[in-house]
Amino acid sequence: MSLHKNKRLWQKHVLAENRRSIQGLLDTLCDEPVYTIMATGEEHRGKEAVAAFYSGLFEAVPDATFDLVNAFVAEDGVVEESVLRGTHQGVWMGVEASGRKIGLPLTIVFPMKNGQILGERMYFDMGTLMRCLGK
After folding, report:
1. I want to staple 90 with a disulfide (CB 3.0 to 4.6 A). Which of 15, 55, 60, 113 is the partner?
2. Cβ distance 35 to 44 under 8 Å?
3. Which domain CATH number covers 19?
């Protein structure tokens, strides 16, 4: 895919995420996407599992935003640096609601092929997340 097409696909995905449109997110993905949380090794395979992942995130952090720091576009995908911000109001990453503000720097790799996102690999420091959550 061209750099331009990859950037547009990633932007479409991010816009759906910001709108809390799980269906919009799923529409950007291949038939069997794989989401991997690198800090824990947790995997979400398939669109149903990915939808459950996003539902859980949006329920636990209903005001979640991904503040973009930088993006790197390549022929095989996009790498995004951002900061997840929001208020921890439900169970997330195995931690009960704390009511605390989150400011979690993360890097997300979006591998792409044939006009679809194959999934995401999310990199962040678990210690930083636990400090945000008061643990």
Report:
1. 60
2. yes
3. 3.10.450.50
Question: Is 115 in a helix, a strand, or coil?
Answer: coil
CA dist 43 → 23, 40, 53, 90 (Å): 20, 9, 10, 20
Whose structure tokens read 């169970």? 91
Closest CA to 42 of 32, 34, 30, 33: 34
Q: HEC states along 82-114?
A: EEEEEECCCCECCECCCCCEEEEEEEEEEEEEC
Owning domain of residue 91: 3-132
For residue 3 the two structure tokens come to 């750099």
Quick one: tokens of 59?
A: 């329920």
Take residue 90 and report the two structure tokens written for it.
């439900």
The model's pLDDT over 56-105, given as tens digits with 9 standing for 90+, comes to 999 999 999 999 999 999 999 999 999 999 999 999 888 899 999 999 99
Burial class (CB in 10 A: 0-12, 13-18, 19+), 96: exposed
Q: How many domains in the chain?
A: 1
